[in-house]
UniProtKB/TrEMBL annotation, chain A:
The chain crosses the membrane at residues 48-67, 74-92, 98-120, 141-168, 221-241. This is Glycine betaine/proline transport system permease protein. One of its GO terms (biological process) is choline transport. GO terms for molecular function: amine transmembrane transporter activity; carnitine transmembrane transporter activity. It comes from Tistlia consotensis USBA 355. The keyword Transcription regulation does not apply. It is found in: Cell membrane.
UniProtKB/TrEMBL annotation, chain B:
Belongs to the ABC transporter superfamily. It comes from Tistlia consotensis USBA 355. The lineage of its organism: Bacteria, Pseudomonadati, Pseudomonadota, Alphaproteobacteria, Rhodospirillales. Its main location: membrane. It is a peripheral membrane protein. It catalyses: a quaternary ammonium(out) + ATP + H2O = a quaternary ammonium(in) + ADP + phosphate + H(+). SUPFAM superfamilies: CBS-domain pair, P-loop containing nucleoside triphosphate hydrolases. Pfam families: ABC_tran. Keywords: ATP-binding, Cell inner membrane, Cell membrane, Membrane, Nucleotide-binding, Transport. This is Quaternary amine transport ATP-binding protein. It is found in: Cell inner membrane. Signal peptide: none annotated. Residues 29-265 form the ABC transporter domain. The complex is probably composed of two ATP-binding proteins (TmoW), two transmembrane proteins (TmoV) and a solute-binding protein (TmoX). Gene3D superfamilies: CBS-domain, P-loop containing nucleotide triphosphate hydrolases.
């Protein structure tokens, strides 16, 4: 049976190949180099720092931070987890991975929060941004690994770039949501007293959206962690590489050690950042309220505080 | 009284093409017709009023009548579609963004229905907010915030979060936040509507006292006619985006412009709206030095009165009654002073009628005074006539659909 492809070929692959290799890569090498450069700088300093800190000092400091932010249970867990990571000899890989994901998160926050703010202030920008974020969240990361390698080469930096693309959407979305859900009357009050838009943003909107923004940061962090193994495919080192090479050699021992490291780091970071978010002013609308309000009829977020308060 | 705020032909239309809707409105179409044909909502239509320095101007109307839209156009939280708003002659509608910001910083403050306190700031920081955005140094603005909190009796709560306070206290903070910037005009959008009735009454009293002290110009929004009558020097009744009547409390209750207004006013306690001067009659006083018991009796017969006040120059010497004089003339011929009653009921002309009930119960007419001078006399019959005047109209109005939820 004849089918169209017998007679006609749509050479999409060739086009893309030609576009990326023949045009984008040679003409914009400088641009991609410039994008990679700050990422590399942040990574180098974080990595240098984390590898320089002695393991016992690092463990104790993390345990103390966990105690302050999330209480005793998380502190004990963090202490033991880091101890285990050292005992199974993946400490250095752990620090490499940590440097990598922290770098990715720093850039996600640096790019994502301003984008979220811009989206909250302009419906039009939000409409443009939304499908882009949808695409970023639905494309499997394997799809953009190849162009990234072509444009950035292999190594840690392209791995981090892929991680940033994958982990960026939640912080943008939740920053947008958090700011939009600040009670309209509060924003009105701020303007009524003569605030500039910038003052409204810093004095009212960001502080009240902070809890939601922190929840976005937490999600971004978790997504970044889930990219660790995939980034190892294009030359990023650390725990992900342990797992990847373990997989290649069917070395279940090494793969398990790397995998355990990723899981333990994920739990520690998740608990600490979650607790940091909840410590924020209890009166700011929480993530749950915020999400719930989206499914209620009427204007989101306005219902929250209307009940008369009869405390004191 | 100097004019502080003046509003001319102020309109707001919500929708895509407000100018087209405005043209239809000017051509005489109604709010409903415009909504049906174009889908646009007429928020406020041709509001005209002016508020004198130190006056409270109250806008009363049901929910959805456009009150919030009106008050928000005064500081342009909502952009007017057409019209003028002037403070001290300076047009706000045509101000550029920076001028507008300066006006909001220095001249107009606002108090909100649901308080709109910033939950992440302390009470003092909330009160300081207007000063902070003005760029006032921290120590100075703290001092002024505490002073404003003292005026509403909340300085002990300065460093608490607003959520720790009751509704009434929170709105006092909202009021202090407005007072702290020392505004020339204070806008209040249903500030007491979210409070319990008892607390609401306290807050009304407190506002009246503050107003007496600070002499601010206030635009006050409410859906409660009682509140409007208590607070307003002038009151505008709003319906579907338009003013149906503007006047003093006595004018609104005494001469409702239409059935809509009288439906509101019918169950108002007129004794608390009308003052003594609304029921007083000409004093027709006698003069101690000129009048004799005989001339006094003749005057009473002529005027059909049972008692008349007697003046000694500017001062009230006392009151004489027909019965008292009739006895006096039959006995000895001459002196008005002998029949003079020196204990008589008296009241200030601005006092409300309910304070007259007890005074008017005796047989003597009540002397109505203005700065100690006799300006009229109030008799029991006239008081009851005034109080009953609403009843007839009320029966007529009762057949109209009553405004729900007023
Ligand atoms: N942003 C808006 N968009 C469209 N219509 C509005 C908007 N704000 C208010 N309205 C309409 O304008 C009218 C007056 O509203 P509002 O001023 O809030 O009334 P009030 O404060 O007296 O209850 C209502 O019909 C309301 O639905
Ligand atoms: Mg309103």
């Amino acid at each position: 049976m004849w089918q169209p492809s017998d007679s006609i070929t749509l050479p999409l692959g060739d086009w893309v190949d030609g576009f990326v290799k023949g045009w984008l890569a040679p003409n914009f090498r400088g641009v991609f180099h410039a994008i990679g450069w700050p990422v590399d700088q942040v990574l180098q300093s974080l990595s240098g720092f984390l590898h320089a800190v002695p393991m016992p000092v690092f463990t104790i400091v993390v345990a103390l931070i966990a105690w302050w932010a999330a209480g005793r249970g998380v502190a004990i867990f963090s202490f033991l987890a880091l101890l285990v990571l050292d005992l199974i000899h993946v400490w250095s890989d752990t620090m490499t991975t940590l440097a990598m994901i922290l770098t990715a998160v720093v850039f996600c926050a640096a790019v994502g929060v301003p984008l979220g703010i811009a989206a909250a202030r302009s419906d039009r920008f939000a409409r443009i941004l939304r499908p882009i974020l949808d695409i970023m969240q639905t494309i499997p990361p394997f799809v953009y690994l190849v162009p990234i390698v072509m444009l950035f080469g292999v190594g840690m930096v392209p791995g981090i770039i892929a991680t940033i693309i994958f982990a960026l959407p939640p912080i943008v979305r939740l920053t947008n949501l958090g700011i939009r859900n600040v009670q309209a009357e509060l924003v009105e009050a701020a303007y009524a007293f003569g605030s500039t838009p910038r003052q409204v943003l810093w004095e009212v909107q960001i502080p009240l959206a902070l809890r939601t923004i922190m929840a976005g940061l937490n999600q971004t962090l978790m997504l970044a962690l889930s990219m660790v193994v995939i980034a190892a495919l294009i030359g990023a080192g650390g725990l992900g590489l342990e797992v990847y090479t373990g997989l290649g050699r069917l070395d279940i021992g090494a793969a398990t050690e790397g995998g355990l490291g990723i899981v333990l780091i994920a739990i520690i970071l998740d608990r600490i950042t979650q607790a940091l978010g909840e410590q924020r002013d209890a009166t700011a609308p929480g993530l749950l309220d915020t999400l719930k309000s989206l499914f209620r009829p009427g204007r989101p977020g306005r219902q929250a505080r209307q009940e008369p308060r009869q405390a004191a | 009284m100097t004019e502080k705020l003046s509003v001319k032909n102020l309109c707001k239309i919500f929708g895509d093409d407000p100018d087209a809707a405005l043209a239809q409105l000017r051509a005489g179409r109604s709010k409903d017709e415009i909504l049906k044909q174009t889908g646009m909502t007429v928020g406020v239509q041709d509001a005209n009023f002016s508020v004198g320095q130190g006056e409270i101007f109250v806008v009363m109307g049901l929910s959805g009548s456009g009150k919030s839209t009106l008050v928000r156009m005064l500081n342009r939280l909502i952009e007017p579609t057409a019209g003028e708003v002037r403070i001290d002659g300076e047009d706000i509608v045509s101000a550029d963004p920076e001028q507008l910001r300066q006006i909001r910083l220095k001249k107009i403050a606002m108090v909100f229905q649901h308080f709109a306190l910033f939950p992440h700031k302390t009470v003092a920081e909330n009160v300081e907010y207007g000063l902070k955005v003005q760029g006032v140094p921290a120590a100075e603005r703290r001092r002024r915030a505490i002073a404003a909190l003292e005026q509403v009796g909340l300085e002990p709560w300065a460093d608490h979060r607003p959520q720790a306070l009751s509704g009434g206290m929170q709105q006092r903070v909202g009021l202090a936040r407005g007072l702290a910037v020392d505004p020339e005009v204070l806008l209040m959008d249903e500030p007491f509507s979210a409070l319990d009735p008892l607390i609401r009454r306290d807050m009304q009293q407190e506002l009246i006292e503050l107003q007496r002290k600070l002499k601010m110009t206030i635009v006050f929004i409410t859906h409660d006619l009682h509140e409007a009558l208590i607070l307003g020097d002038h009151i505008a009744i709003m319906k579907e985006g338009r003013f149906v009547q503007i006047g003093t409390a006595e004018e609104i209750v005494g001469e409702p412009a239409d059935d809509y207004v009288s439906a509101f006013t019918q169950d108002i306690d007129r004794a608390k709206v009308f003052a003594a001067d609304s029921v007083m009659a000409e004093p027709q006083a006698l003069e101690l030095s000129k009048d004799t018991p005989r001339s006094a009796l003749e005057r009473m017969t002529e005027l059909k009165r049972n008692a008349l006040y007697v003046l000694d120059g500017d001062r009230i010497a006392g009151v004489v009654t027909y019965r008292g004089l009739a006895g006096a003339t039959s006995g000895h011929g001459g002196d008005l002073g002998a029949a003079l009653i020196r204990e008589y009921p008296a009241i200030e002309s601005a006092a409300k009628l309910y304070r007259l009930y007890d005074l008017a119960r005796g047989e003597l007419p009540v002397a109505v005074l203005d700065d100690g001078r006799l300006v009229g006399v109030a008799r029991q019959g006239d008081i009851f006539k005034q109080l009953a005047a609403g009843a007839g109209e009320a029966e007529g109005a009762a057949r109209q659909p009553a405004p729900a939820g007023a």
